[in-house]
Amino acid sequence: MTESLTLRDVRPYDGGEPVDVLVRDGVIAEITPAGTVAPAGEVVDAGGRWIGPGFWDAHVHFTQHVIRRRRLDLTETRTADDVLDIVRRARAEGAPPSDGMLMGYGFRDGLWPVPASLAALEATVSDIPVVLVSGDLHCGWMNRAAAARLGVELDETGLLREGPWIGILHDFDEAAQLPADAYADAASAAAARGVVGIVEYEKTDNIAEWSARTAGGLTSLRTDIAVWPDLLEQVIAAGVRTGDIVDEAGLVTFGRLKVVVDGSLNTRTAWCWDPYPGMDPGHPHACGMESVPIPELRRLLERARGAGIEAAVHAIGDRANTEVLDTFQALDMKGVIEHAQLVRDDDFARFAALGLIASVQPEHAMDDRDVADHHWAGRTGRAFAFGSLHRSGATLRLGSDAPVAPLDPWVSLSAATARSRGDRDAWHPEQRLPLDVALAASVRNSFAVGQPADLVIGDRDPYASDRDELRSMPVAATLLGGRFTHREL
Questions:
Q1: What PANTHER family does the entry give (predicted)?
Q2: What is the pLDDT of residue 432?
Q3: Which residues contact 228 (CB under 8 A, 6 or more apart)?
């Protein structure tokens, strides 16, 4: 049976007169001048609203995004004392621990005047385990009770960073405690912002977990899923390759091997060519950290390539980006570089020359501009350099890194094109992206006959919207394969 839908009176984002759209079997079958289509199926009058391809978020940690709503909110803190005040108040008010632990999320210690310390956290709460997750997910601040439970060693800071931390971040029992509908609610919230698909980089068995979600009725998103090195051999043994559909609903596609080569800016573990301010140049981590040695990266990429699996490699510092570019070049292998936050001038053109995608998160530039000005002083002209990447010919993909930034494409579009928010001037305005470029980097299909009917209908013209109007764009409807996943029409 043919399923049809008729959308009347919509205006394409990329210009032109109002049109009618006929959708048949999940595909755009006709686009005609408004008032001329022969209607079929349900007829929906869009009232002259604006239509374009639905959005993809190219970098998400979906379980962490869902769990964030259950943790103490530390995102507005500016000092260690701010964080400790929230923890102290939550404990005094009897905040329910998660699986026996008091969990928080969102602190950023890159500019704290007084650094984190184990003693300060112990003096605040010592009777139950406390684990506080940084806003960039690259470190955790915990007390001794938490360290004992998790079987880790702490130094005087109480901070656990990078490899040892990431190894336990995804093992907390919070995910098992999430209500059955928590994931569906988060997916529906994304659809309400025009999202039709995400690239999932959670460190877990994504094939099994996402197949179960779609089988259970979570059908409002398409998902490209990744595998981390610890499960790579399991995926290879199963014969799964990049591009394979892995669920019965046809919504989950196997994507890439994810490898994390360095750390992050806020934790001062991004691997750079130059030392961080105040660091002894002789310190082994003065320039950040090499999370996965480059010979091991090469081995992993060769292993994946031989099994038909593409790669996405996390590289934030300029040394990390150089080394990852060198590795892709040596292997003559295409793939994705995730983040590309600091890039040497000579390396921008290599993305296009090597056929690599730069997957970037524009709102990170807004969150991190002050810490970048401090820790990457004198180098910020090539930090979060979306404009330089575009001008060099690189293919861009925009995302959020949710929960690090909101899973909202309009926020990303505003940050990419304005490089400012609130009452602040544009930060390195030469790195702004044109709106058409940012839109193209946020979608996977076009508004054309024969294309999937993955569509978003907005109340305003993006090209006539200012920075804040773009950020808060009202979304009237989102369609996935011709069916509504969000509707206010």
A1: IMIDAZOLONEPROPIONASE, PROTEIN LONG AFTER FAR-RED 3
A2: 98
A3: 203, 257, 258, 259
Token digits for 115?
Answer: 């650094």
pLDDT of 172: 67
- Torsion region of 194: left, alpha or beta (phi above 0 gives left; psi -120 to 50 gives alpha): left
3-state helix, strand, coil in the chain (%, to 5): 35, 25, 40
- 71-175 carries CATH number 3.10.310.70: yes
Question: What pLDDT was estimated at residue 96?
Answer: 62
Class of 1-54+446-489 per CATH? mainly beta
Instruction: Enter the pTM of the model.
Output: 0.93
CB 17 within 8 A of CB 33: yes
Per domain, the residue ranges of the chain are 1-54+446-489, 55-70+181-444, 71-175
464 or 95: which carries more pLDDT confidence?
464
- List Cβ neighbours of 231 (8 Å cut-off, separation of 6 or more): 205
CA 409 centroid distance within chain? 10
DSSP E strand boundaries for 86-129: 102-107
Of the given ranges (86-95, 357-366, 445-454), which has the lowest mean pLDDT?
A: 86-95
200-218 average pLDDT score? 96
Q: State the Cα–Cα distance between residues 409 and 195, nearest whole angstrom.
A: 7
One CATH from 3.90.1150.10, 3.40.50.620, 3.20.20.140, 3.40.630.30 for 55-70+181-444: 3.20.20.140
What is the 8-class DSSP label of residue 297? H
